[in-house]
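Re: weekly structure request thread

Next one in the queue (295 aa):
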Amino acid sequence: MSQEIPIHAKSGWLMLPVNLAMVFGGFAATVWVIVQASQYGGEAPWLLLLTIPTTILGFIFLGGHFTLQPNEGRVLILFGDYRGTVRESGFFWANPFLTKPKMSLRTRNMETQRLKVNDTRGNPIEIAAVVVWRIQDTAQASFDVNRYEEYVKIQSETAVRHLANTYAYDHGEEGEITLRSGVEEVSVALCRELQERVGKAGVVVEEARLTHLAYAQEIANAMLRRQQAEAIIAARQKIVHGAVSMVQMALDDLAAKQVVELDNERKAAMVSNLLVVLCGEGEVTPIVNAGTLYT
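Done, posted below.
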């Protein structure tokens, strides 16, 4: 694997006067030699072998100037040989024959497409994620992978697919992490797997989170009815549990305060009536018993 070599380039402000002097000085000297040769002849034309190359070199050296903004880098390559990376911001000069591709070192956001995959139980789901990443090693990003941005995109989608195959969408067993319930755990697992996949490209994954999670369209309606049924059952369980507790409390209070003594048959009738009142969805119309307790 490649490894980044940090280097410091020469200041462009120091080299700029030298290069401009070569360009304008060489051009002025060339004009002067031509004028002298046209007027006086002699050996003056031979000086063009010095003035013209000086002017050309000045133009060539001007091509060595480059600028860098904060969180940008330049990878310097000389005839296929990696020489180092400049990370400092400012105005610099380097060998004009160096190839100097610029790379952004800033943090980037990338959202994957909505992928249709199966969870660990075989249910088709739609899933998407957003990945926050940046380049840490410019040499690896430049030389170890081909087109690092596309590499990160493809590996991110692959990691999201593998994540969906690893966890269930919901309704896991007791203590089981699912895609819906274990948001933090799933995000950490996704970030860790992404880092393992894109690390060879010199990329650091700072954060990865799911942005879209839903059942696939062909089973969405069925799963919605299932969720509604489970919600109704859970609500009924709470209602029944509360009603039983209230009935028990009523019987205990009646017995403790000796308000009335009920045999088992009357207790059963009272429990039945109270459960109907407490568990019924609509309002109950009471019937007042005008006779005795046993009529």
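The radius of gyration is 40 Å. Helices lie at 12-40, 48-62, 138-143, 148-166, 183-198, 217-256, 264-279.
Next request, please.
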